[in-house]
Amino acid sequence: MDYKDKLRRIPLGLAAGLATLVLASGGSVAWLTWRTLNPVPPVAEFPPLEVTPGQTDQTLPPQTEPATDPTVPDVSQGDPTAPVPADEKTGQIFWLKDQDGQLQLVPTAITVAGDASPDAQVKAAFDALLTSPGDADPDAFTTIPEQTQLLAATVEDDGIHVDLSADFTSGGGSAAMTGRLGQVIYTATAFDPNAPVWISVDGQPLTLLGGEGLEVSQPMTRADFNQGFGF
Predict the structure, then answer these.
(1) Measured in whole angstroms, how far is the alpha carbon of residue 218 from the centre of its chain?
(2) What values do phi and psi take at 103, rounded to 5?
(3) Cα(172)–Cα(211) distance, integer angstroms
(4) What are phi and psi of 224, to 5 degrees?
(5) How far is Cα 203 from Cα 154, in angstroms, rounded to an integer?
(6) What's the start-to-end Cα distance of the chain, in Å?
(7) Which of 88, 96, 166, 227 is most buried (most C-beta within 10 Å)?
């Protein structure tokens, strides 16, 4: 076998490898050539979104207030335990007026704090009666002596107890005594018109009033006074 025949007999494996290399090289060249002719378009870049102050973005969901936890007190409504100012309470004190020769009781309104105790209410009524110069009506007057003082006033289970100084029994005829008794009974019940009244003078129960001995029953209500003395 001569030299030329040896060259023709190239091993089959080597020939296959060379063929593969040629195909691969040709494929790479073809891909690079296609990329050159067909470049990838650049990725679009968008400017950052700017929101003008005060401008509403319609694409955003509406803002809602956070849910209120019922277990947490709402301090914006104030302290629910804070005391509420007490309302005023209105009562009446009584003066006298001569109507065609007949004495009549004339009321005048007074007010006290709504949270005042029953004792404080009675004391306030007598303070107004004994220290006031008189009713707004120029024809109204009092027959209670000016020096009369309230020594004590209490509201108990059996009624209203009023203790006056001895000046309460001084001077005046039967009409004046009847009138001042009516003023005390009605003023003592300024805030409780149906309550019975117990009257004492210097700590002693009042049974007779004045020199003519006006009998005073104990206790006495407004109805008792009207029935006994025709008011």
Answers:
(1) 44
(2) -75, 140
(3) 9
(4) -60, -45
(5) 13
(6) 169
(7) 96
12 Cβ contact partners less than 8 Å away, ≥ 6 residues apart: none
Question: Looking at the chain, how many residues does it have?
Answer: 231
Distance CA 83, CA 195 (A): 31
Distance (Å, rounded) from C-alpha 191 to C-alpha 153? 13
pLDDT in tens, 154-208: 999 999 999 999 999 998 888 999 999 999 999 999 999 999 999 999 999 999 9
This prediction has a pTM of 0.62
- In sequence order, the 6+-apart residues with CB closer than 8 A to the CB of 218 are 198, 199, 205, 206, 207
Residues 167, 145: contact at Cβ < 8 Å?
yes
Give 48's strand partners. none
Q: Which two tokens stand for residue 176?
A: 């004046």
Residues 35-67 have pLDDT tens digits of: 555 554 444 444 444 544 544 444 545 555 555
Compute how many other C-beta atoms are within 10 angstroms of the C-beta atom of residue 116: 17
Q: What is the DSSP string of 99-165?
A: ETTEEEEEEEEEEEETT--HHHHHHHHHHHHHHS---SSTTEE--S-TT--EEEEEEETTEEEEEE-
Backbone angles phi, psi at 63, to 5 degrees: -80, 140
Q: What is the number of alpha carbons within 13 Å of residue 196 lying toward its C-beta? A: 11
**Contacting residues for 80 by C-beta, under 8 A, at least 6 apart:** 73
The structure tokens listed for 30 are 């073809």
